[in-house]
Amino acid sequence: MAAAGSATRRVGFVGAGRMAGPSRRASSEQVGRRGAGRKVEAQHIVASAPTDRNLCHFQALGCQTTHSNQEVLQSCLLVIFATKPHILPAVVAEVAPVVTAEHILVSVAAGVSLSTLEELLPPNTRVLRVLPNLPCVVQEGAIVMARGRHVGSSETKLLQHLLEACGRCEEVPEAYVDIHTGLSGSGVAFVCAFSEALAEGAVKMGMPSSLAHRIAAQTLLGTAKMLLHEGQHPAQLRSDVCTPGGTTIYGLHALEQGGLRAATMSAVEAATCRARELSRK
After folding, report:
1. Which candidate, 77, 181, 192, 219, has a CA 20 to 30 Å from the CA of 122?
2. Is 82 annotated as contributing to ligand binding?
3. Smallest Cα–Cα separation from 133: which of 143, 125, 120?
4. CATH classification at residue 78
5. Within this chain, do residues 192 and 122 fall inside the same structural domain, yes or no?
6. What are the φ and ψ backbone dihedral angles of 85, each rounded to 5 degrees?
7. What's the domain range around 256?
8. Is there a single domain that holds both residue 15 and residue 149?
9. Do 154 and 187 fall into the same domain?
10. Which residues lie across from 66 on neighbouring strands?
11. Can you give the pLDDT of all 281 residues of the chain as single tens digits?
């Protein structure tokens, strides 16, 4: 498709703040790498923001920058909206006059629905929502993507190809986006709390703190890779580690007594409910 091919060559960013970071890395952090891993050349990326304060991150990579949001739409067919959620509707309404049938528009703002965006844009505009999480900054993110009513498989494949530079990207129904916030967005903090507790247990037993925290983090990393690469259910891997009367089953019993699983499930539920509440505001 012509639009997809053009969008691959030029990517625009409307908004250059913190929310732009993961998507910017997906498209531009590959610039310095050789070979097939390269996604988009820096000179083919255009970013806009009201001031130069946030644009400096793009400028440092050799990207083009502007203070005009409409100019980004006029230069690029694939445009990522990385503004704060409460100003996104106004920004979308501002650029709507220059949106064409060839544009692919992507929002990374939490809480702004596809239907809201589609209502502000010309009929049949192709819109998607993307929600990354913090580990995208080390190319190990968990990203979900939901397509609007007028988006086809070619557009989703194009976007997924770009975003996989930041980690694992899954297409989901829009109803799952808030659940992703509770599971993976907030889940980063939950995992950090568990990693900290693991390390502190080792410190209690006499291991130096810095060593304990490194080993705890590596244990989480290695376990996650085994779960992803082997495709195993966590219960199977947990069972493989346990031996009758061994150390692990004693430790698991202590975790069950402390209510770890119930507390974790409640944490994801609470974070998801809060995400839904914020989306309604």
Report:
1. 181
2. yes
3. 143
4. 3.40.50.720
5. no
6. -55, -40
7. 180-279
8. yes
9. no
10. 48
11. 334 444 446 899 998 766 555 555 555 544 434 333 446 788 889 999 988 887 888 888 888 999 999 999 999 999 999 999 899 999 999 999 999 999 999 999 988 999 999 999 999 999 999 999 999 989 999 999 999 999 999 999 989 988 998 999 999 999 999 999 999 999 999 999 999 999 999 999 999 999 999 999 999 999 999 999 988 899 999 999 999 999 999 999 999 999 999 999 999 999 999 999 988 87
Q: In what order do the strands lie in the sheet with 78-81?
A: 64-66, 45-48, 11-14, 78-81, 104-107, 126-131, 141-147, 167-171
Same-domain pairing of 113 and 193: no
CATH of the domain at 205: 1.10.3730.10
Residue 261 maps to a domain: yes
What pLDDT is stored for residue 25 in this prediction? Answer: 55
Residue 100 in domain: yes
On whether 83 is known to bind a ligand per the annotation, the reply is yes
- Same structural domain for residues 164 and 204? no
Q: Is 8 annotated as a binding residue?
A: no
Q: Name 227's Cβ contacts closer than 8 Å, sequence gap at least 6.
A: 234, 237
Among candidate residues 126, 114, 120, the one with its CA nearest the CA of residue 89:
120
Query: What tokens does 101 get?
Result: 């049938």
Report residue 49 as tokens: 């923001």
Output the DSSP codes for 34-76. Answer: -GGG----GGGEEEE-SSHHHHHHHHHTT-EEES-HHHHHHH-
Domain boundary residue, one of 148, 172, 196: 172
Considering the domain architecture, whether residues 164 and 234 belong to the same structural domain is answered as: no
Q: Are residues 120 and 72 in the same domain?
A: yes
SS3 180: helix
Query: Given 3-state DSSP classes, what are the helix, strand and coil percentages for the chain, each rounded to the nearest 5?
Result: 60, 15, 25
In this structure, are 139 and 185 located in the same domain? no
pLDDT confidence of residue 17: 64
